[in-house]
């Protein structure tokens, strides 16, 4: 008997694809209010986010971020960070969401496709944020957690590059998803593997390298520009634009937040 294959899924990168800035750096203000950040580190997070918006991040920069993430979170309580994100996600994320992304997510749901947010940001940030957006399925970077519930300084899974594509293939095999009938959305050339693994790759606000690749391969290129507050009604969300984006983009710059967390630990 042949196992049925589902219609497909829609995989969305998070930063600069669904929301307009780094998902982790967006929580600088709540971390400051909670005592994780002093004024100097808060200013550093703001500068890092500006650089992220203008320049983006290449492979080498992201590898450095990964190393910083694993080294700087040792000893911190995983649930404490996740709870902070859960408690503040409504005020942080609501104004940052692209209206176009919400409209497309709704379209995929109407078509019967599963919607998955896939991000190199930490799971503790992505899961509450995705839940707030009404998306239940998440693939994100996971740190190893010790028996005491604290970070060990190692990674269980790094949702970056080939890691994203591998996770998508694993999900497809496990849940009988047709990747040929699936869609993937991202802004960065570092996500080329996840775009190549599906039958319908879509680039959103692409960086220069990704835009060149998309043009060569005749992939769909979209521009997300309008941010919408989630308190607005979905009926007010405009239809997505298919013009080529001019905005520059990058991927996660999460190290700044975790540097701040480490600073709090060492000063305690």
Q: Count of DSSP E strands? A: 9
Q: What is the multimeric organization of the chains shown? A: single chain
Tally of structural domains: 1
CATH superfamily: HAD superfamily/HAD-like
**In what range is the share of β-strand residues?**
15-25%
Specify the CATH architecture. Answer: 3-Layer(aba) Sandwich
Helical stretch tally: 10
Tell me the layout of helices and strands.
Layout: E1 9-12, H1 28-33, H2 39-54, H3 59-72, H4 78-93, E2 97-98, H5 99-110, E3 114-122, H6 123-132, E4 137-145, E5 151-157, H7 162-175, E6 183-186, H8 192-196, E7 200-204, H9 208-217, E8 220-222, E9 227-228, H10 255-267
Parallel strand pairs: 1-3, 1-6, 3-4, 6-7, 7-8
Antiparallel strand pairs: 2-9, 4-5
Helix pairs in contact: 2-10, 3-10, 4-6
